[in-house]
Design goal:
By secondary structure, the chain is mostly beta strands. The chain is built from one helix and 23 strands.
Length: 278
């Protein structure tokens, strides 16, 4: 188990960065490795993204000096979504069975967190996001059918998609974390367009269900200084609050979105028109 660090470029420096430098600053790769638990701490709102793929033995989140020591959740909340086979998450003395696309909210507290797979031949693949938390809210498992479902877009604009809001106000109480996932229909490639920002919170995108050679081009930056990040399967893009975001793929794909900041309203967006893009 390891905790890596990632430091994002600011609004001035990103403008002159090459592709490799942009990926170093805003993309987290290699999160899903069989038999490992991998975490990356970003300086964007001190958010953490991670992946756990347990095989024969459970994987437990340890203690890190970068977080002040103690239990990982001593001062943090965590959202988990399983994109693999059936598995389970144990938080202290509580166990939660998670099927594919189930979500789990883990509240702040001094409790160990362990991940396991029901079948090592078809392991669970847990994607997790964590933000600092000011108080403790109850843990809550949200099955996919319990998430708020929103169907958006259409075939004519190549963005027919279904949004599942699983960890959000009205379903789960949290300090700042909001999380869910979006699945694109066959033949659709845009996850959202025109793009938007939300200056009151950051957002992390985790792309999955891509073929090996497929790519999603995640657009970021300011409207007049647009950059594209070519994203591979099971990679995360870190979007600071000042950056717009939208993406287009070479085929259908899915992605997990998560947000942290001072506002939990999903519709709180600052939209950017196509005419503003340069």
């Amino acid at each position: 188990m390891k905790l890596e660090r990632k430091f994002a470029a600011d609004q001035q420096r990103y403008c002159t960065m090459r592709n490799e430098d942009l990926r170093d600053s805003f993309v987290v790769a290699g999160l899903m490795s069989e038999g490992e638990l991998i975490l990356t701490l970003s300086d964007i709102d001190r958010g953490i993204v991670g992946g756990a793929v347990p095989l024969g033995q459970p994987l437990e989140i340890g203690s890190f000096s970068e977080l002040g020591g103690g239990a990982f959740t001593a001062r943090r909340e965590v959202g988990v979504i399983n994109i693999g086979g059936p598995g389970g998450v144990t938080v202290g003395n509580e166990s939660f069975a998670m099927e594919r696309l189930d979500s789990l909210y883990i509240g702040r507290g001094d409790h160990p967190v362990r991940f396991s797979s029901d079948n090592p031949a078809d392991p669970a693949r847990f994607y997790l996001v964590s933000y600092p938390a000011h108080t403790a809210y109850p843990h809550r498992l949200v099955k996919q059918v319990e998430a708020t479902r929103i169907d958006l877009g259409g075939k004519a604009t190549c963005n027919e998609r279904t949004i599942f809001q699983s960890l959000r106000p009205g379903i789960v109480e949290s300090c700042q974390l909001v999380m869910g996932f979006t699945c694109l229909a066959e033949g659709s490639v845009w996850n959202t367009f025109p793009p938007h920002t939300h200056d009151r919170r950051s957002e992390f995108y985790f792309y999955f269900n891509l073929e090996d050679e497929a790519r999603v081009f995640h657009f970021m930056g300011l409207p007049d200084e647009l950059k594209a990040l070519p994203m591979h399967n099971e990679e995360a893009a870190l979007s600071p609050s000042w950056s717009m975001h939208c993406g287009v793929g070479s085929g259908a794909y899915s992605f997990i979105w998560s947000m942290g900041g001072e506002n939990q309203e999903f519709d709180d967006m600052d939209h950017i028109s196509q005419a503003e893009l340069a």
